[in-house]
């Protein structure tokens, strides 16, 4: 019966389309219809009445055979959303398939072996952000024609199969943002055609393989945010085609190889947050003439900064803070590249001066005495219109305090004067609509690309939500710690809808599914089985939140309380600002966090910020951008009336900024609880403290600094 149906469909295609190309293989036609059913592809994308080669979106054919399938960005049918899975067994019949792109389409489950065993013509496999789990099958090493393999932003784990070193035609390999462990295979050095290799944000250990120096065509290498140790291989200096090198956030030690001066095409060098030491090689920066970005902060480098560093014509970003560099700054002034020029679309120095003047403050151009009595210089030639950000780590704690308290006084006083201002500045334009992801139709149509856990799974992982696993009682749900298979730590938030009478969990789930940013807490999955109990699964943050980490009782009685150093506090302030900036200025319409306080600023093992408490995110009040998500968020906002919760906070960016200012004060003064309180006592303390802040009187500022540093 099925064969007769397929023959009938083929005849209808032939009669309707005449000489137009159509599928010649009944096996491939059957495979596409099976795929349409198993993945829940909508009729608007793959209409059943039409020839797949002509009318099905994302299908490419050549000589009547299917050569490409692209379902990136597709939405499932309602039935398909109920039980999404990686059901693509029918692809085995598409033997001429060259490209398969499912990026952004939820495919929870492991990668099938059929890709490596039965799709020998495959050249591009793109499974980014598809929620695939488990290890990479070694059978992918059979794809000798594979040119690009994208597996980033998933939940893949385990060690990498050495068989991937057999993919001699591979040009792009992206395995970033997963949970891979073990060493980086030295066999990757055999991939001589590789131009881009991204292994960032995993748990790789061991050393960087010296064989990487043999990948002569490599242009982009990113090994950041892992646990790599040992020295930087001198063989990397052989990568003469390299344009970007990022080895940051590891545990690398030793000297920076002098062989790096052979990488004459290098434009970006990021080595921050390691344990590298010694002097920078002589002649290094004379050779790296194309360098645009140099980040060396948080290492143990010493000695004088090379003079050639200041002569790099293309340098835009320079960060050498938190090292042991020495330099004579007695004649230092902001001249040349940083003399009155600003980044495009930023406010001018004159705008800054007027801004401070309106608030009773004096702006001194960051210490440049020449600008105090003289007008700003006339526009410089185009080739000199560049701003070099120099964060030299010789400023020490006092410099950090001065910068931070300046931000605080501007933020808090601006809020008190302009609380009705919805976005702070009318000069800040919106991001084009095209930058915003598709929006959901209703609270039941959450298109989360994360894994769907069963209730029984999470019940077992948390020992039936025992007190032993309980971390704390949050305002939107109780938090429990547990571990996935492979030892990956997680946090399970249990939301009881008997006591939480709104759909805030749906907003958080949809928000984290649609908006991706490194400063948001990573959502790993969810469970929506129970009618009155919803579960969200997050990546565990080892340093908990700022409220707990600012001061922490040590294991040794003699040490008493251990507090965060100034560099870490600045790192946290910057990270939180980046997350809020994304919500306010890069989302369209602008989104408001509404619960900015120390307890909502989560910290990973390296004190990188991940904003939490996202169940209160709303569209900014008064924004005229109407969309389904906008209406849903506003409807949810109006349904939340519980006093004392984040739901009662104003949905304005200005309020977020005000609360962020209180977080900054908490960082500087060490006074716990300021950011979560808004009672009369707190407001009185704020008024008193703000009176102590002056950018011209450091002794006055010192009175509000965390007193724990008086004992150091």
TrEMBL record:
SMART domains associated with the record: LRR_TYP
Membrane-related topology note: Single-pass membrane protein
Membrane-crossing residue ranges in chain numbering: 387-412
Keywords recorded for this protein, A-Z: ATP-binding, Glycoprotein, Leucine-rich repeat, Membrane, Nucleotide-binding, Receptor, Repeat, Signal, Transmembrane, Transmembrane helix
Signal sequence range: 1-18
Start and end residues of each Protein kinase domain: 465-712
Cellular component, GO, one term: membrane
Disordered: annotated span: 423-450
GO MF assignments: ATP binding; protein kinase activity
Keyword RNA-binding: no
Alphabetical list of Pfam families matching this protein: LRR_1, LRR_8, PK_Tyr_Ser-Thr
The UniProt record lists the keyword ATP-binding: yes
Subcellular location: Membrane
Protein name in the entry: Protein kinase domain-containing protein
Species annotation: Salix viminalis (Common osier)
Lineage: Eukaryota, Viridiplantae, Streptophyta, Embryophyta, Tracheophyta
């Amino acid at each position: 019966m099925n064969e007769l149906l397929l023959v009938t469909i083929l005849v209808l295609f032939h009669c309707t389309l005449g000489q137009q190309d159509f599928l010649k293989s009944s096996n491939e036609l059957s495979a596409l219809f099976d795929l349409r059913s198993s993945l829940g592809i909508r009729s608007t994308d793959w209409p059943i009445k039409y020839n797949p080669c002509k009318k099905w979106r994302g299908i490419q054919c050549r000589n009547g055979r299917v050569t490409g399938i692209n379902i990136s960005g597709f939405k499932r049918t309602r039935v398909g959303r109920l039980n999404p899975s990686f059901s693509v067994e029918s692809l085995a019949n598409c033997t001429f398939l060259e490209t398969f792109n499912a990026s952004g389409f939820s495919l929870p489950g492991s990668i099938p072996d059929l890709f490596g065993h039965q799709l020998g013509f495959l050249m591009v496999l793109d499974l980014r952000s598809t929620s695939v789990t488990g290890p990479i099958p070694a059978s992918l090493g059979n794809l000798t024609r594979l040119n690009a393999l994208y597996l980033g932003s998933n939940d893949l784990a385990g060690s990498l199969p050495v068989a991937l070193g057999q993919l001699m035609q591979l040009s792009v390999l992206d395995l970033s943002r997963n949970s891979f462990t073990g060493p980086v295979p030295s066999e990757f050095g055999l991939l001589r055609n590789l131009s881009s290799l991204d292994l960032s944000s995993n748990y790789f250990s061991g050393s960087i393989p010296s064989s990487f120096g043999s990948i002569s065509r490599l242009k982009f290498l990113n090994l950041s945010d892992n646990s790599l140790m040992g020295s930087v291989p001198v063989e990397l200096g052989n990568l003469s085609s390299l344009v970007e090198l990022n080895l940051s956030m590891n545990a690398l030690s030793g000297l920076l190889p002098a062989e790096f001066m052979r990488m004459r095409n290098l434009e970006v060098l990021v080595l921050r947050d390691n344990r590298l030491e010694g002097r920078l090689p002589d002649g290094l920066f004379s050779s790296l003439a194309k360098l645009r970005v140099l980040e060396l902060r948080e290492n143990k480098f010493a000695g004088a900064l090379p003079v050639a560093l200041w002569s790099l014509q293309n340098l835009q970003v320079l960060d050498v803070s938190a090292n042991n560099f020495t330099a004579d700054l007695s004649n230092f002034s902001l001249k040349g590249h940083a003399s009155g020029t600003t980044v495009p679309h930023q406010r001018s120095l004159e705008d800054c001066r007027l801004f401070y003047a309106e608030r009773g403050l004096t702006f001194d151009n960051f210490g440049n005495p020449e600008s105090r009595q003289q007008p700003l210089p006339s526009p410089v030639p185009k080739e000199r219109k560049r701003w070099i950000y120099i964060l030299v780590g010789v400023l020490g704690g006092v410099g950090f305090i001065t910068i931070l308290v300046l931000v605080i006084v501007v933020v808090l006083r601006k809020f008190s004067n302009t609380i009705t201002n919805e976005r702070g500045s009318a000069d800040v334009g919106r991001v084009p609509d095209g930058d915003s992801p598709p929006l959901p139709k209703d609270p039941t149509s959450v298109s989360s690309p994360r894994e769907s856990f069963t209730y029984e799974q999470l019940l077992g992982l948390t020992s039936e939500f025992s007190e032993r696993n309980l971390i704390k009682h949050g305002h939107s749900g109780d938090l429990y710690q547990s571990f996935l298979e492979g030892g990956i730590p997680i946090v399970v938030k249990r939301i009881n809808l008997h006591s939480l009478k709104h759909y805030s969990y749906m907003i958080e789930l949809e928000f984290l599914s649609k908006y991706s940013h490194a400063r948001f807490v990573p959502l790993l999955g969810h469970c929506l089985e129970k009618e009155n109990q919803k579960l969200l699964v997050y990546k565990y943050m080892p340093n908990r939140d700022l409220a707990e980490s600012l001061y922490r009782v040590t294991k040794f009685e003699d040490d008493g309380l251990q507090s965060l150093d100034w560099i870490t506090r600045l790192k946290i302030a910057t990270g939180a600002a980046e997350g809020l900036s994304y919500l306010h200025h890069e989302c369209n319409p602008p989104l408001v966090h509404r619960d900015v306080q120390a307890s909502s600023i989560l910290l990973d093992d390296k004190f990188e910020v991940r904003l939490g408490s996202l169940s209160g995110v709303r569209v900014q009040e008064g924004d005229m951008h109407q969309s389904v998500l906008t209406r849903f968020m506003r409807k949810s906002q109006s349904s939340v009336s519980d006093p004392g919760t984040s739901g009662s906070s104003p949905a304005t960016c200005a309020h977020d900024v005000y609360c962020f200012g209180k977080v900054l004060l908490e960082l500087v003064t060490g006074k716990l609880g300021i950011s979560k309180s808004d009672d009369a006592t707190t407001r009185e303390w704020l008024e008193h403290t703000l009176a102590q802040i002056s950018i011209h009187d450091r002794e006055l500022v010192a009175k509000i600094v965390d007193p724990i540093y008086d004992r150091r």
